[in-house]
Amino acid sequence: MKVSNYLDTKPIQVLAGVVKREVITADDGAPHFCMRVFELEPGSSIPLHSHPWEHEIFVLSGQGVALSEDGAVIVAAGESQRMGGVDKVLALLGGKPVLARTIDVFQNCSSIDQIVVVLSEPNLEPGKQLVAEQGWSKVTDVCAGGRRRQDSVVAGLSRLKNCHWVVIHDGA
């Protein structure tokens, strides 16, 4: 186990107003893990980027915005007119609501960080209940859609927070 103060590590200037300190590296016997502390002066930033591995961000003091890379808007606010009045969003398929099967796919997708579900007004409460029952951690909002599909897409997009990429997908 390594015990140290991050201030004891050598500061490395990486950008104007940005200093990096490498607290844990492969040299410490951690070939698949690293811990770096970035110190940003007010008004400075790190360019938007991504990594093929998981990483955590902790703000030790001050405030900042971390952009979430990818989001999904699941649009299910239609009237199911082609289904003869059967609500396909909450209809069971193999004992599970069709909407739940769709959300499961994005919940289990490693490149999706947040999900917004857009439902018709009558399905809003049952949809929120479904999300609560299933405990999907990536669903950040369930909101009402608009009169047209494009209105529903805009409603969903407006609920995503700081996404770089967004997938729009039908709920059923």
UniProtKB/TrEMBL annotation:
UniProt-recorded name of the protein: Uncharacterized protein
Keywords: Nucleotidyltransferase, Transferase
One of the record's GO molecular function terms: 2-C-methyl-D-erythritol 4-phosphate cytidylyltransferase activity
Keyword GTP-binding set for record: no
Species in which this protein is naturally found: marine sediment metagenome
Coiled-coil stretches: none
SUPFAM superfamilies: Nucleotide-diphospho-sugar transferases, RmlC-like cupins
